[in-house]
Amino acid sequence: MPHATPHTDTAAKLDSALRGGPFHVALRAAIAARGLPLQRVQHHLSRHGVKVGVTSLSYWQQGARRPQRAESLRAVRALEEILELPEESLIRLLAESGETADGRPAGRSHRSLVEASGVLTGLRAELGAPRDGGLRTLGHHERVRIGARRELAERESHHIVRAHRDGVDRFVAVHHGDPGSVPARMAVRPLENCRTGRVRWRQDAGVLAAELLFDTRLRAGDTFLFRYAVEDGTAGVSREYLHGADSPGGQYALQVCFDAGALPVRCHRFTQHSAAAPRGGRQELAVSPLHRSVHLVEPHVRSGYVGIGWDWDWD
């Protein structure tokens, strides 16, 4: 495809933007480097079988909106080819971008998820708890409560597990707070068939890990039920809850409940195959007017992430 040869300064800006982002700056630099008006970019996208309006392209390169839907992500991959960029260069920046142009969070970034994973490994080591704690999840039901300040106020978890080796007598519960959370001020409450053991946290990552001790030692094949809650409320406005799984498991259900004085204008579910992958599987969820809640159910959990996001009236 013919295009203008970028000047040295323009090429340098593009190279820098592709390395460090954010997404909208890199996209704007790539379009400028190729000397293509947005109408021509739209034309090339249509030849790739992707329909995106000029207005959307303009918003993307200004940072006013982010590509999120499946068709938009197809467009981003097509743009990498049209603008002669390295494969996955724009997609990677999109996954790493942690906030929108007005500074509000746009979902957990690739960097925050990777950092939390590394922090958790260290916390598990401190607690002497290997990644495989000897338990298989048969069912996991979570209830997240969003408070009057629109904050993540509390999370309650109900686990149904089966031991796959003898001697298992504990579980390490993990809570990843919203940006700005203070793990030292959180509280872990055992609710059923467990008691709290050692608790560790990392302030910079907003991650808390707590031992939940059983009153018995399980034998291989034994099943066990336990419940606990984490009182949070230490961060600012919450906009999503994300659950990650390292390996396939049983049923997972997530319910998000909102305070009567703080109802979102819309909610949706989403999936994410890995920390570096873009989000997909978006599906709108209707808030129950009586119970002020939304939920999702995954009959068989796959490795990766699943979650619920919501928008407030100012978003």
Report on this structure:
30% of the residues are buried. This protein has a six-stranded mixed sheet, with no helix packed on it. The chain has a four-stranded antiparallel sheet with strand order 8-13-10-11, with no helix packed on it. The longest helix is centred in the middle third of the chain and has 17 residues, at 110-126. A hairpin with a 4-residue loop joins strand 5 (195-202) and strand 6 (207-218). It has two domains: 8-96; 110-311, Immunoglobulin-like (Sandwich), CATH 2.60.40. It has helices at residues 8-20, 23-34, 38-47, 54-62, 70-82, 89-96, 110-126; strands at residues 135-146, 152-163, 168-176, 187-192, 195-202, 207-218, 223-231, 240-245, 251-258, 266-272, 280-285, 293-298, 304-311. Helix 2 (23-34) packs antiparallel against helix 6 (89-96). It is an alpha+beta fold and 315 residues long. This is XRE family transcriptional regulator. It comes from Streptomyces prasinopilosus.
